[in-house]
Amino acid sequence: MSGKIVTLLCTALLLSGCEQQPNAKARQAKPHLVEVMQAAPADIELERIRTGTLEAFQTINIYTQEEGIVKQILPREGDRVKRDELLVRLDDQLLNAQLQRARAVRQQAETELERLKNLIKRNLTARSELTSRETDLAVAQADEKVIATRLGYTRIRSPIDAVVTARHTEPGNLAEQSAHLLTLADVSRLRLKVDVSELLINQLSIGMPVDIQIDALQSSQQLKPFAVSGTVSRIYPTIDPATRSGTLEISLNPAPQGARPGQFARVKFKIARQQVLLLPFGSLRQSANGSYVYVTDSDNKVQIRPLETGIKTGEQIEVLAGLKPGEQVITRGFTNLKPGMSVTIVNRTTD
């Protein structure tokens, strides 16, 4: 009887030991698994695409400086004109008559001055009269010059080689002073204004080549994307405080065939940058104080690194400050992650 009792007690002790082993293992903390990458500088070429509208390199509005009936207006919209080519002729009858009168007054003043000089030589008149006659002649010459200049304004010529883009009057109409008659545009060269961020504008320089895509030419001429070449010709000196962006001009010289002012265009900037520290954008965390990442130290404990970031390219973002090359940045396993926590690294990749 006593032997059976001893056997039962041993069996119970063994069973209780077997039950305790799983419970002890269950009480052990599970490791926090993370994936990391080693921060390393890389040589990259950033690309940025911005949009804008093509403009004529130079646009000139032709106004009248004299009032008169339009006797002749030669070009129409789309016509090409050369520098100094006659564009508009106004009625000049009244000014011609005024010029003839001014010329007669000037000739009379010259005759009077010569007669007075002869009298002075013979001591027949006072020399004080000479100044008065010289003044009369100078006034007459100035009046003649004014009328001749106004008469020249009745013949309006083109100041540049251009294309007529607008015509605002017809022969027979009265053109008042400062009336808008024509608009000319130099379309042999085009320009494109684009807005870029304050981070990007500091990476650009005057003379820098860019690639341009004009959507209207893609279908008509079946060009490859960004097949048109341009050059950064001007960078405006100020930044808009509301948008934090600046403006620059792109020149297309010569303008590609088929390109016209008003067309939509895209500009691709290629920025070669050396030794840029990049991180996956998904590894970046945000707080009220800004951006940061989690890193692991030599003991596999978690630390926080506040960062200053730059330009985002694809799925990566540039690190300007706050991180050193070689540090291990956590890229996955953020759930319940806290500074000072020990983690288990399941893989290490170097980019």
UniProtKB/TrEMBL annotation:
Coiled coil location: 87-126
SUPFAM superfamilies, per database record: HlyD-like secretion proteins
GO cellular component: efflux pump complex
Domain CzcB-like barrel-sandwich hybrid: 59-186
Domain of life: Bacteria
Pfam families linked: Beta-barrel_RND_2, BSH_CzcB, RND-MFP_C
InterPro entries assigned: Beta-barrel_RND_2 (IPR058792), BSH_CzcB-like (IPR058647), MdtA-like_C (IPR058627), RND_pump_MFP (IPR006143)
This protein's UniProt keywords: Coiled coil
Residue stretches making up the Multidrug resistance protein MdtA-like C-terminal permuted SH3 domain: 275-333
Molecular function terms from GO: efflux transmembrane transporter activity
Domain CusB-like beta-barrel intervals: 192-270
UniProt cross-references to NCBIfam families, sorted A to Z: RND_mfp
Family of the protein in this entry: Belongs to the membrane fusion protein (MFP) (TC 8.A.1) family.
Protein name: Efflux RND transporter periplasmic adaptor subunit
Native source species: Amphritea opalescens
